[in-house]
Design goal:
Structural class: alpha+beta
Distance between the termini: 98 Å
Strand order of the largest sheet: 28-31-32-38-37-36-35
Radius of gyration: 45 Å
Shape: elongated
Length: about 775
């Protein structure tokens, strides 16, 4: 909404208020001022009158004008096409400085094609204003008393400020100058200036010329006025104001209607008399309009044919500027009804500007709009206004809200005085009925406030005028239940897993829960039972629920490989399903290519290997054990293992089968998929540890190469040998006869006192006994 302080003065006296104060108040009461620009014309630009216009002797496009500027007549050469005799124009005198289009022009005496020129007839753009036309700016008495030689910047219309105000959708009442004025009136306690009432001196009533008939029940209110025109003139003040507010239309009467709506919020329309049907009644020809609800539910206006839908727009084309007799219509329709009808009939022809206003709520005071229109038309045009009006009036039910002052105070959060609340509501044009010595009261909302429905709305109205800054800040007390639920904790733990993966250089992927059934079967993964399959898959390539995260991750790795990314580290955490469609959460990792790219001191990079990959996964998910697994066609036959933790199987870690890697264009690829539920992602509970130093002892034994170290470690730790805390392999040496020399390291931890050599020897002997008796191992000497 764009409004000028000059237009606001049509309704309220703000001469004592500074522009900063006005802007701050509008911002505080919910009407955000986005920009403020001052209207300022240059000095030495005066009002002049063109007395004579002659053609230039040496230029067809130039005219030589004699212009009266009050104290002298100046000869001025002008190139504007619209210059004419008896026009009032803006004249830049010698010494005037004009700034426009990023240039500065100083006016002096000049010679144009051999003819002296002593000034300049200015366009609106050359004066730093908005563009009004393609020629010079033509003025009239609408700006005030025309005094030749008076500087234009002294006229009120060229003073003040232009405010651009941002409105929320519910404030349709502020889509007009009157609406903004009402808001300032309420805050500052001012009075609205009511326009004088138009009094017709004509004796001929409108009923002799025009009648309106209602064919069936409608829900709109209508008010009609009939006017005969001799001429039609658009005054400068209206043209200037409409251009500033981006509301200027193409036709003269169309601009009158636009101006009234812009000023008062009342929606107006007009019809040519020639398009109306006539009823022969003896000597009189009476014009008729029929109003009824059409087959689609729109309140429509008809003559011989349909003319318009109320609140939506005309359905015929008219040239009302050429017609002599015009029927003017002021209308009001409930904004909710407009929205419902247009939602139901989306293809309905509509006037977008009109619908924008009616859907947000126009001004129901139709008499104000018609009165304002008659005043302006009679002031600037030669016209005959028929006395009286024709009306179709609806008895709209007043909105009554019953509440209590204590309820309003509780909503606001501050104990505001009852008298203060009452005063604010009255300033906002609410009608109050208060019972003596009672907290309860009833309120009737103004007819133009379509957004007020509840006591919460009333509280908001009081608060924005009272001022949010005047409400004391209080601590907010509430009893909130803990949000640290098991589900939330599981989510946090899963995100921590991913964060640790990201810290190791992995990139997180998110794939669909669906995958291609045929590819799952090809890779050897289980698929859903037939009766559990999807009945309506989204695509043929996503025709089942995934039973593993790895296939989709490998597809992503393959695509990135094709894009030129040789070294890939990706991971994903998400749901998978077994053949019974039971859901579980897993985390999967895929690496491919080099672990370390080609950079000094390793110019060929460093390849991934099984144990390096396992070590990286262990640093992410925690320590685990590897157990030999039965070879499957998806994994490498010699580099694959089950992952166990605390005796629970977590998943699998392996190198990708060479055939699958070749088919997918991947090199040196390792995969891992683990069950998140069994990772025991809980906050670690630390145990007391010995403050005494730990001793380490190494043993080298000869043992069958087919015995897994995992079995050895498990057996030793289960034997619960005192002081023995851990056992892990150190080195392997090949021997003859299917034997290897295995070096193992024992961690021997004291309890309360330091260990003696006898204690360490005893632990070593106990370990050797188990190795010899259970695994046939011998100490290498």
């Amino acid at each position: 909404m764009i409004v000028t302080t000059h237009l606001l003065k049509e309704f309220i006296d703000i001469s004592h208020l500074k522009i900063d104060e006005i802007c701050n108040v509008l911002n505080n009461i919910g009407l955000e001022v986005e920009s403020v620009n001052s209207l300022k014309l240059p000095s030495k630009v005066v009002l002049g009158k063109v007395l004579k216009k002659s053609p230039h002797p040496d230029a067809n496009k130039l005219s030589v004008c004699q212009v009266d500027v009050g104290y002298e007549v100046l000869q001025i050469v002008c190139g504007a096409k619209n210059v004419a005799e008896n026009q009032y124009v803006a004249v830049a005198l010698r010494g005037a400085v004009l700034e426009f289009d990023s240039k500065v022009l100083e006016i002096g005496v000049s010679k144009l094609r051999g003819v002296d020129s002593y000034g300049m007839l200015c366009s609106s753009v050359e004066l730093g204003l908005v563009k009004l036309n393609d020629g010079i700016m033509v003025l009239d008495s609408s700006i005030g008393k025309l005094e030749l030689g008076k500087e234009l910047r002294e006229y009120d219309i060229f003073q003040g400020h232009i405010l651009e105000i941002s409105l929320t959708p519910n404030r349709g009442d502020c889509l007009c100058v009157l609406g903004i004025a009402r808001e300032l009136k309420a805050y500052f306690g001012l009075k609205i200036k009511k326009p004088k009432e138009y009094m017709s001196t004509n004796q001929i009533g409108v009923g002799r010329k025009f009648q309106v008939a209602m064919k069936n029940k409608i829900q709109s209110s209508l008010l009609y006025k009939v006017i005969d025109f001799e001429d039609k003139i658009l005054p400068f003040c209206m043209q200037f104001s409409l251009t500033l507010s981006n509301n200027l239309k193409s036709g003269i009467l169309e601009n009158y209607l636009s101006y009234i709506t812009y000023m008062t919020g009342v929606v107006l329309n007009a019809y040519e008399a020639d398009s109306l049907s006539k009823d022969q009644n003896h000597t009189n020809e009476i014009l008729w309009l029929n109003v009824k609800e059409d087959e689609d539910g729109f309140d429509a206006v008809y003559a011989d044919k349909k003319l318009s839908n109320i609140g939506i727009g005309n359905v015929i084309e008219q040239n009302i500027d050429q017609a002599k007799t015009i029927i003017f219509e002021a209308s009001y329709i409930d904004p909710a009804r407009v929205s419902q009808l247009l939602f139901k009939h989306k293809d309905q022809i509509r006037d977008k500007d009109l619908v924008y206003k009616t859907m947000r709520g126009s001004n129901p005071d139709l008499q104000m709009g018609i009165n304002f229109l008659c005043l302006l038309l009679s002031e600037f045009n030669h016209c005959f206004v028929y006395d009286g009006v024709q009306e179709v009036k609806q008895d709209f039910k007043q909105k009554v809200i019953r509440t209590q002052f204590s309820n309003i105070a509780a909503i606001i959060g501050c104990d505001i005085d009852r008298e203060m609340m009452s005063q604010i509501l009255k300033q906002l044009d609410f009608s109050l009925e208060i019972k003596t010595n009672d907290d309860s009261f009833s309120i009737i909302t103004p007819c133009y406030r379509h957004d007020i429905e509840t006591e919460q709305d009333l509280a908001e109205e009081i608060l924005r005028i009272y001022g949010v800054d005047n409400i004391p800040a209080l601590p907010h007390f509430m009893a909130e239940q803990s949000k640290n639920t098991p589900v939330y904790q599981d989510y946090i733990n899963q995100r921590k897993l991913i964060q640790r993966a990201l810290s190791h250089g992995f990139l997180e992927c998110i794939h669909y829960l669906f995958y291609q059934k045929e590819k799952l079967q090809q890779f050897g993964f289980e698929v859903l039972d037939e009766e559990k399959e999807l009945l309506n898959p989204i695509t043929s390539e996503l025709n089942t629920l995934r039973t593993s995260l790895l296939p989709a991750l490998l597809d992503t790795a393959s695509r990135n490989r094709n894009f030129g990314y040789k070294n890939i580290k990706i991971c994903e955490i998400g749901s998978v399903y077994n053949h019974k469609r039971e859901e579980s959460v897993k985390i999967a990792f895929v690496v491919s290519g080099l672990q370390t790219r080609e950079i000094f001191p390793k110019p060929k990079g460093q390849k991934w290997d099984f144990y390096t990959f396992a070590q990286v996964i262990s640093s992410i998910v925690g320590e685990f054990e590897l157990v030999d697994m039965q070879v499957e066609n998806f994994y490498h036959p010699y580099q694959s293992a089950y992952v166990y933790k605390n005796g629970q199987k977590l998943g699998v870690i392996a190198k990708l089968h060479p055939k699958i890697a070749q088919d997918m264009g991947l090199q040196n690829t390792f995969v891992c998929e683990l069950d998140v539920l069994h990772l025991n992602l809980e906050h670690p509970m630390f145990e007391k540890f010995s403050k005494l130093p730990i001793s380490q002892r190494d043993l080298t034994i000869l043992i069958n190469r087919n015995i897994a170290f995992g079995e050895i470690r498990k057996r030793l730790l289960q034997s619960q040998i005192r002081y023995l805390k851990n056992v892990y392999p150190v080195d392997i040496f090949d021997q003859e006869n299917e034997q290897i020399a295995l070096s193992i390291r024992m961690e021997i931890s004291p309890e309360d006192t330091s260990l003696r050599d006898e204690d360490i020897s005893w632990v070593t002997q106990e370990v050797l006994k188990i190795l010899e008796n259970d695994f046939g191992a011998k100490l290498k000497v």
